[in-house]
Design brief:
This protein has a single domain, classed as Beta Polymerase, domain 2 (2-Layer Sandwich), CATH 3.30.460.40. It contains seven helices and nine strands; from the N terminus they run αβαβαβββββββαααα.
Length: 162
């Protein structure tokens, strides 16, 4: 597993983005892009990825002909909207442990796309996660207000309750 291999090499990276939505929505939303946010140097990341059979394709993307999934390393620091993420989760899977955004952080991450880019798919993904996972809605509301998006949060809340 990518996360465990990175950790074994003492490289800090956290799974974020659409793949986290896939995990927390029980695959209602499917993503084949694994985004590991990191501040690590690409050279060190490439060594680990090559040991797993991935080859660098373009920029910060890695592909492996044996899997439909590709891995991208967006440059950190890890944030949701304008807020830095200080603590993340560790999720045990059949393939190993992965460092990942919490369900609450995932909802914020998807809402950030909705709030700042008017990405309706981001709202839909936030709803998918919030309907299946325990989410601290008070924290999401505080964060939304800090982002200047109280009106948009109210829309999210209405759809979640409706």
């Amino acid at each position: 597993m990518v996360s465990e291999a990175l950790e074994a090499a003492d490289l800090d990276a956290v799974l974020s983005g659409g793949s986290v939505v896939s995990i927390y929505s029980d695959n209602e939303y499917q993503s084949f892009d694994l985004d590991f946010v990191t501040l690590e140097r690409m050279k060190a990341l490439a060594v680990v990825m090559e040991s797993l059979g991935f080859q660098r394709s373009t920029g910060r993307h890695f592909v492996n002909p044996n899997t439909p999934y590709y891995v991208e390393f967006p440059t950190g620091p890890l944030t949701v909207g304008d807020s830095p993420v200080k603590q993340t989760a560790r999720l045990q899977t059949p393939l190993g442990t992965v460092r990942i955004l919490t369900p609450t952080q995932c909802v914020m991450d998807r809402l950030a796309a909705f709030y700042h880019w008017k990405d309706r798919q981001g709202l839909d993904q936030a709803l998918m996660v919030a309907r299946r996972q325990p989410v601290d809605l008070a924290d999401v509301e505080r964060w939304s207000v800090a982002e200047g998006k109280a009106v948009e949060f109210a829309e999210f809340q209405r759809e979640l309750e409706g």
